[in-house]
Every structure is written in C-alpha cells, then in structure tokens.
Amino acid sequence: MAGWSALPYDLIESIANLLNAAEDFLSFSSVCRSWRLVYKSKNWHPGFQLPWLMLGEMQTNKGSMRQFLSMCKFKFHYLPFPETQDFRCWGACQELVITINPRFEVRLVNPFTHACIDLPSITTLNIQGAARDCWFSFIHKAKYFKIQNEYMVFIIYGPRFEVAFTRSGDSIWSLVQSLIPARFVDVVCFKDQIMALSIVGTLFSLETNGVDPPRMLCVSPPPQQEKSWQKMYLVESSGDLLILFSYPSGNMVSRFRAYRFDISKREWMRLEDLGTNVLLVDTDICTSLPACDYLQRNCIYFVHDNLDSLLASGPRCMGNYMSVYNLKENYTDFMNLGNDNSFRYISATWVLPSLW
C-alpha cells in the first residue's frame, strides 16, 4: 500500500492543481493530515468551476439542510446552511448568495465557507406602509457584481420596480433615478458598466460619476419583433450583451429567443446560435458559461421554481425540474430533479462553489 502521507509537499500540491470539482477538493482534504495541510494552505489554483444548483431546505436527522445539485457529478449534496433558513435567496453563478430576512436585513453569504458580509438594511430606502408586511415579495430581484476590486449589490424592489444599489463601504442604499419613467426587470454588469432593462424591453445604462442622485439613461428600444413574452433577462456572454426572451410552451417548459446588442448601430440583432456557450437560467437570473462535457453547447438550462407543485390539488408528484432548450434546433429536453416535499415556495438558483 502506498504511503500517501509521505508524498512530497510539491507533488501533493500538483495533484490538487489537477482537480476542478468542489467535491473532489473536499475528498482530497480528507485523505490524510499532510494532504489536508496542502488543502488549507490554498496554494493550489482550481480550474474552471461548474456551478451547483441550490434547491430547497430539507429536514434530515442532522437538522435542516440545504439541497445542492452538482452539475459536474450530477449528484445531490445536503449541506448545513443556517444563514439562509427561512430567508429568500438569489445566486447567479457567483460564490456569494444574497439573502434577505423578514427584518429587511441583507447579507452576502458563501454557502460553503459560511463567510458573511453584512449589507445596509433595506429600511434605509424609507419603506412605507404595507411593504413592511410583504418582505418576501418586496425585492423582485437582487444581483451581486465585482467591479474594479469592489463589490456592488443591486436590487429591483417595490410596487414601482425601482432600482437601488450599495457598494463596498456604503452605509445606505442609493436610489437610482430615471430620466424616463420606467419599471425595471433586470440589471447586468457589461464591461464594467451597469446596464438595465425595463419592463417593456428598453435598454438603459447607469450613470454614477459626478451625478447625484445616480440616474438611468435610455440607450435603445427593445427588439420590435418580440411580443407577449413571459420574462426577459439581460446577460453578458463572451463580450456581447444579450437579451433573452422566455415564452411559455405548454407542459411547464419554456422556449426562448435571444438577441445580441450591436453597440455601433445601437440595435438588437437576432441570435440563433450561442456558439460555444450555454445559458443557465432560473426564475430571476441568467448567466453565460462556456460549454463543456457536462453542459451542451448552444443550449439554455432553465430551472423552474416549485410554484406549480404547491398549487397542485392532486398528488404531489411534481417537483424540481429543469428544461434544456436547444436554441438552434428549437427543441426542449426535460430533466426531472426529484420530488419536492417542501410546503414553501422555493426558487432554485445557481451558485459557484468556492472553498476559499
């Protein structure tokens, strides 16, 4: 039997650098004490990481656990995540999850290391009246970006679908004004510039330098060909800005149409091929990633919430499921992710496993 603990440090470190999947790193750290010391030193550099799908809370004999699906291994993992128990969460293939609780306290949390960053309370936005009783639906969308070595967190909130943000070192949330009245549905960071999408599909850019308060400037009208969509998403993909339209298509699956923004012409161009990329979509957020052995190129992976299951009057046979839509072939595959035994609303979201 080989003496694994006696291997030279440099060789053990070289082995660590060959690993990609988060669960492989955890197994690596469990081999023996010397391997765990290499793991804890963080001198290794993980390669491309596939996201995990964060699902609902499950009650186990070890207490409340959060269910995760590894896309690399297509295996379910159950991890303690008390920082999100009974909270609403947003991911977006980042290593940090945004959480909000009934007291309107907002945090950035790493699901794997449990490191937390406290953000200013939403109450700094002067929340009035009935909104205080509707904390779960008060924020429609939340997104986290890293821009020039600082973080920015954006929310779309309230009955008027307004935009506010906070960044590193801020003690309040800054409300964004718009020169044109608009209700917003998405924001994205594109080449260090914040872009936003209105409920009718108009594209805006955020101006912050030298402006008080920050304001949205109109950039382009929506693609004129699209009507009666169900949802819209903005996403940066390999240096391009895309808009994705979701349409219901029966049997609880969706079809999609994508457009690329031509910056020189300031207009949207129909996109029928994602090239070597894939799009990961949940009910709130869309992210672009390179295709790989586990994600088919030119496909859109759309994970549904469990609202249909909660509203079903018959047997609770519907659960977590995912549609895989081929944009070029206009064809959808269906993936069942298991029954959902939760009696609360769950909006599955994508997270990037980070052990740092």
UniProtKB/TrEMBL annotation:
Domain KIB1-4 beta-propeller: 70-326
Organism domain of life: Eukaryota
F-box domain span: 4-37
SUPFAM superfamilies: F-box domain
Name by which UniProt lists this protein: F-box protein At2g05970-like isoform X1
Organism whose genome encodes this protein: Nicotiana tabacum (Common tobacco)
Protein encoded by which gene: LOC107778651
